[in-house]
Amino acid sequence: MSEDKKKLTTSWGAPVGDNQNSITAGSRGPTLIQDVHLLEKLAHFNRERVPERVVHAKGAGAHGYFEVTQDLTSYTKASLFAEVGKRTPLFVRFSTVAGENGSSDTVRDPRGFAVKFYTDEGNYDLVGNNTPVFFIRDAIKFPDFIHTQKRHPQTHLKNPNAVWDFWSLSPESLHQVTILMSDRGLPATLRHMHGFGSHTFKWVNAEGQGVWVKYHFKTEQGVQNLAPEVAAKLAADNPDYHTEDLFHAIDQGDFPSWKLSVQIMPLEDADSYRFDPFDVTKVWSQKDYPLIEVGRMVLDRNPENYFAEVEQATFSPGTFVPGIEASPDKMLQGRLFAYGDAHRYRVGANHQSLPINRPHSEVNTYQRDGQMRADNNGGGSVYYEPNSAGGPAESAAHKTSPYEVGGAADSVAYDHNDHYTQPGDLYRLLSEEERTRLVQTIVGAMQPVESDEIKRRQIGHFYQADPEYGIRIAEGLGLSIPEE
Hints:
Elements: H1 36-46, E1 59-68, E2 87-96, E3 111-119, E4 122-129, H2 142-149, H3 160-168, H4 174-181, E5 195-196, E6 201-204, E7 210-219, H5 228-237, H6 241-251, E8 257-266, E9 292-301, H7 306-311, E10 324-325, H8 330-346, H9 421-429, H10 432-446, H11 452-465, H12 467-477
Antiparallel strand pairs: 1-2, 1-9, 2-3, 3-4, 5-7, 6-7, 6-10, 7-8, 8-9
Helix pairs in contact: 2-3, 3-11, 4-9, 10-12, 11-12
């Protein structure tokens, strides 16, 4: 061993004398418990995998930047949108939703589209999908929905009976089901798909005036999708196809980019719009609220280490910055808690201090202790608030803005329950070839369902969206249209 070669050490920095042979009683052993290097290696190995995400387990990520191209400071005081030309570093994680960590990239599934902006007023996480809507609109249904996408507790197999039973009993899912079963359910690459914030958020300007807002990331590579047979072949031949494609594109200097635009709705329109603007199973018509360009996102750097950056990255829709706030969207309201809580369980109470999650701006909190505290834990500074020791204090200028609420405390649904107009409009917008592929995909997905009752119930939803839609699926399944 040359003198200039680095010495292998233990995790506590002591040089390792032998990394090939454990300490044993003689050549045959047994192994001695005094071999602390062996014990440390085995114990660490057992803990090398943090629990995988319950959803969005399989993912790929990249670093990049966001550049403002249009002045929207009349709508929001968020510093990342402060002036044209301003660049904010960011990290993006793309993912499938339902599959486990080793699942294929090219299965039919929504794709997570999560962006962490490292702004100069703290991190801002925009945690969306590649679809503008979702399957459900109230977070209380989320665990049940995800259970249907997971494995049967007895057979440990995917269960189409559960999937379609839940969807057929949750007509609000029809819009997202139609998108998922269309060509858009199989994006060709992560670079060739749009992204959406999905939820409605609130923007507030420097004068305290607010608007409702929806985010749209439009791929500048153009939308491309996979034919089902190609996706199936890739799933077998190269289950990491999307991960590989993104890495190599960036590595070769072919930096993917998206244009970010927003729809803006005056606050008062929420009470009169023909769909509830906080219902995440619905979209806002772009004829009513046109897209307004905000800026451009470019991904130009691959992670140096997948685990440290992609796997340990934590995103939460509740990670806001001044000028961007929550709306009363019921699904969003549940996610504000659930995502942060998942990270505290999966990665730890101090997940925000990991390099990939650490804000680029100064952090001053009174949070102390917890597993994996990597800094000086606040040293001997004051550890409570309010205090008279000059510790960090609240800033009234950064209070969130109010919005009116009212009514009895009760378990109530949204007032608007038209779950068929928008899926029907989408179906009618498709070309005949796209409709045929959509019907074929749905028929293929529903054929394994054992219950004709479930099939007929779901066909009834398709029929209410558009009679042709329901009739073609019924014919494909060899069933009749349910009577009204």
